[in-house]
Amino acid sequence: xxxxxxxFVILLSTICSFGQTPxxxxxxxxxxxxxxxxxxxxxxxxxxxxxxxxxxxxxxYKKGAYADCRDPRxxxxxxxxxxxxxxxxxxxxxxxxxxxxxxxxxxxxxEARRQREENARRFADA
Length: 126
Prior knowledge:
Layout (H helix, E strand, L loop, with lengths): L7 E4 L14 H18 L3 H17 L8 H15 L6 E4 L14 H15 L1
Parallel strand pairs: 1-2
Protein backbone atom coordinates (compact mmCIF):
# COMPACT_ATOMS: atom_id res chain seq x y z
CA UNK A 1 0.00 0.00 0.00
CA UNK A 2 1.36 3.42 -0.89
CA UNK A 3 -0.60 5.52 1.57
CA UNK A 4 2.40 6.52 3.61
CA UNK A 5 6.00 7.36 2.98
CA UNK A 6 6.98 5.40 6.05
CA UNK A 7 8.40 2.01 5.24
CA PHE A 8 9.39 -0.11 8.16
CA VAL A 9 11.56 -2.99 7.22
CA ILE A 10 12.67 -5.39 9.90
CA LEU A 11 15.32 -7.87 9.01
CA LEU A 12 14.56 -11.14 10.72
CA SER A 13 16.86 -14.06 10.61
CA THR A 14 15.27 -17.36 11.47
CA ILE A 15 18.65 -18.77 12.39
CA CYS A 16 18.91 -16.50 15.43
CA SER A 17 17.64 -17.74 18.74
CA PHE A 18 17.54 -16.59 22.34
CA GLY A 19 19.55 -13.41 21.89
CA GLN A 20 22.36 -15.01 19.94
CA THR A 21 23.27 -13.36 16.67
CA PRO A 22 25.15 -15.83 14.50
CA UNK A 23 26.91 -14.71 11.36
CA UNK A 24 24.91 -14.37 8.18
CA UNK A 25 25.99 -16.45 5.23
CA UNK A 26 26.54 -14.81 1.84
CA UNK A 27 23.34 -16.49 0.65
CA UNK A 28 21.40 -14.92 3.51
CA UNK A 29 22.89 -11.48 2.84
CA UNK A 30 21.85 -11.79 -0.80
CA UNK A 31 18.35 -12.90 0.24
CA UNK A 32 18.01 -9.92 2.60
CA UNK A 33 19.00 -7.48 -0.14
CA UNK A 34 16.65 -9.08 -2.66
CA UNK A 35 13.81 -9.02 -0.14
CA UNK A 36 14.48 -5.40 0.76
CA UNK A 37 14.59 -4.34 -2.89
CA UNK A 38 11.37 -6.19 -3.60
CA UNK A 39 9.61 -4.54 -0.64
CA UNK A 40 10.82 -1.11 -1.70
CA UNK A 41 9.61 -1.60 -5.27
CA UNK A 42 6.21 -2.83 -4.05
CA UNK A 43 5.57 -0.41 -1.20
CA UNK A 44 7.62 2.76 -1.36
CA UNK A 45 5.47 5.80 -1.99
CA UNK A 46 7.73 7.18 -4.75
CA UNK A 47 8.11 4.40 -7.35
CA UNK A 48 10.86 6.19 -9.31
CA UNK A 49 12.86 6.72 -6.14
CA UNK A 50 12.36 3.08 -5.16
CA UNK A 51 13.87 2.01 -8.46
CA UNK A 52 16.90 4.26 -7.88
CA UNK A 53 17.37 2.93 -4.35
CA UNK A 54 17.14 -0.70 -5.41
CA UNK A 55 19.51 -0.17 -8.34
CA UNK A 56 22.01 1.40 -5.95
CA UNK A 57 21.71 -1.43 -3.41
CA UNK A 58 22.12 -4.08 -6.09
CA UNK A 59 25.12 -2.28 -7.58
CA UNK A 60 26.71 -2.04 -4.13
CA TYR A 61 26.09 -5.74 -3.58
CA LYS A 62 27.75 -6.61 -6.91
CA LYS A 63 30.77 -4.47 -5.92
CA GLY A 64 31.09 -6.48 -2.71
CA ALA A 65 30.11 -3.65 -0.37
CA TYR A 66 28.23 -6.02 1.92
CA ALA A 67 30.70 -8.91 1.82
CA ASP A 68 32.04 -8.06 5.28
CA CYS A 69 28.57 -7.62 6.82
CA ARG A 70 28.04 -10.92 8.61
CA ASP A 71 26.37 -9.41 11.68
CA PRO A 72 22.67 -8.65 11.02
CA ARG A 73 22.87 -5.35 12.92
CA UNK A 74 25.87 -4.22 10.89
CA UNK A 75 24.18 -5.21 7.62
CA UNK A 76 21.03 -3.30 8.61
CA UNK A 77 23.08 -0.21 9.48
CA UNK A 78 25.01 -0.37 6.21
CA UNK A 79 21.84 -0.82 4.14
CA UNK A 80 20.12 2.02 6.00
CA UNK A 81 23.08 4.29 5.31
CA UNK A 82 23.06 3.38 1.63
CA UNK A 83 19.33 4.02 1.37
CA UNK A 84 19.74 7.43 3.00
CA UNK A 85 22.68 8.25 0.72
CA UNK A 86 20.50 7.49 -2.29
CA UNK A 87 17.42 9.37 -1.11
CA UNK A 88 17.32 11.23 2.17
CA UNK A 89 14.03 10.23 3.76
CA UNK A 90 13.59 10.84 7.49
CA UNK A 91 10.60 8.52 7.50
CA UNK A 92 12.44 5.52 6.12
CA UNK A 93 13.68 3.15 8.80
CA UNK A 94 15.63 -0.05 8.46
CA UNK A 95 16.69 -2.14 11.38
CA UNK A 96 17.29 -5.59 12.74
CA UNK A 97 15.22 -7.26 15.40
CA UNK A 98 16.18 -10.65 16.75
CA UNK A 99 13.35 -13.14 16.65
CA UNK A 100 11.59 -13.79 19.92
CA UNK A 101 11.79 -17.30 21.31
CA UNK A 102 8.60 -19.24 20.88
CA UNK A 103 6.44 -19.20 23.99
CA UNK A 104 6.17 -22.44 25.84
CA UNK A 105 2.95 -24.22 25.17
CA UNK A 106 0.72 -25.59 27.89
CA UNK A 107 1.01 -29.32 28.46
CA UNK A 108 -2.57 -30.30 27.75
CA UNK A 109 -1.76 -34.02 27.41
CA UNK A 110 -0.25 -34.45 30.87
CA GLU A 111 3.07 -35.61 29.41
CA ALA A 112 5.11 -33.34 31.69
CA ARG A 113 3.35 -34.70 34.79
CA ARG A 114 3.90 -38.30 33.66
CA GLN A 115 7.57 -37.56 33.01
CA ARG A 116 8.00 -36.01 36.48
CA GLU A 117 6.33 -39.04 38.10
CA GLU A 118 8.56 -41.44 36.14
CA ASN A 119 11.66 -39.49 37.13
CA ALA A 120 10.57 -39.51 40.79
CA ARG A 121 10.07 -43.31 40.67
CA ARG A 122 13.50 -43.83 39.11
CA PHE A 123 15.09 -41.55 41.73
CA ALA A 124 13.34 -43.42 44.55
CA ASP A 125 14.50 -46.81 43.20
CA ALA A 126 18.13 -45.68 42.98
